[in-house]
Amino acid sequence: MHRAKPIIIINFKTYPNSIGENAVRLAKFCEKVAFETGIDIRVAVSAPDIYPVSKAVSIPVYAEHVDPYPPGRHTGSVLPEEVKSAGATGTLLNHSEHQIPMEQLEDSITRASKLSLVTVVCADIPSKAEEIAKMKPDFIAVEPPELIGGEVSVSKAEPEIITKSVDLVKKKHNIKLLVGAGIKTREDVVKALDLGADGVLIASGVDLAQDPEKALRELLP
Ligand code: G3P
């Protein structure tokens, strides 16, 4: 089957293997595999790692989250301006591990987009994905929370979540769709793409692998 080249986002989260110096090391593996295979691999890293990672690699580096506030009195917040000046070219938003109230989400998308940051907004179910689609992010990533970090992928356990999201997000609103949760094998990736996703988000399958470079290579379609 012919399909467009997928987008693969590796979410580093805050695993010991994917923060600090290890974030730079892992990002370099991702870059190496991206260059060798020609596949569009992007990394989402935690705020303190954005600067060193984006200095070290030339593949896209995204923030894992940004707050919607403007610069000013917002102690401890992570602003779109900050991640951009640290080298990020996009951001995840509303990941199930860092949710944003729906009434704030549109603001977050608007603020990030104004700074030309690519927005990848997560949703747990297709109907929520459709609500978010109306806010016009660049990508929507559907991830059933109960499968995140597990051994069974969304492609195997909940293929209808992918097909429903394809209808509600891609066909109805013309927004690119990513899916994630439990993706551990090439078969999982291929199935997600065959069901109509434009790409996948992966974390533990690479972040926690003994040999992350090999694990990533083996996952690619
Ligand atoms: O953002 C991607 C992530 O939540 C999926 O995690 O460990 O199931 O690949 P994992």
What features would you describe in this structure?
The mean pLDDT is 96. The protein starts with 6 loop residues before the first strand and ends with a helix. The longest helix is centred in the N-terminal third of the chain and has 17 residues, at 21-37. The chain has one domain (7-219): Alpha-Beta Barrel (TIM Barrel). Helices cover 43% and strands 17% of the residues. It has ten helices and eight strands. The protein has helices spanning 21-37, 47-56, 80-86, 102-114, 126-133, 154-157, 159-173, 186-194, 204-207, 212-219, and strands at residues 7-11, 40-45, 61-63, 90-93, 118-123, 139-142, 176-180, 199-202. It has an eight-stranded parallel beta barrel, surrounded by seven helices. With 221 residues, the protein is α/β, with parallel strands linked by helices. SN-glycerol-3-phosphate is lined by residues 11, 95, 143, 148-149, 180-183, 201-205. The site of SN-glycerol-3-phosphate (G3P) has 14 residues, from strand 8 and helix 9.
Offer a few descriptive terms.
alpha/beta; 17% strand; 221 residues; TIM Barrel; binds SN-glycerol-3-phosphate
Strand content: 15-25%
Q: Name the average pLDDT.
A: 96
What binds here, in terms of ligands, is: SN-glycerol-3-phosphate
Low-confidence segments, given as residue ranges, are none
- Would you identify the CATH architecture? Alpha-Beta Barrel
Number of helices: 10
Strand order of the largest sheet: 1-2-3-4-5-6-7-8
For this structure, what is the CATH homologous superfamily? Aldolase class I
**What sequence of helices (H) and strands (E) makes up the elements?**
EHEHEHEHEHEHHEHEHH
What integer value in Å does the Rg equal?
Answer: 16 Å
What class would the helix/strand composition place it in?
alpha/beta
User: How many domains, as an integer?
Assistant: 1
Distance between the termini: 12 Å
The coarse overall form would be globular
CATH class: Alpha Beta
Largest sheet, in brief, is:
8 strands, parallel, barrel
Number of strands: 8
Oligomerization category of the chains in this entry: single chain
Approximate helicity band: 40-55%
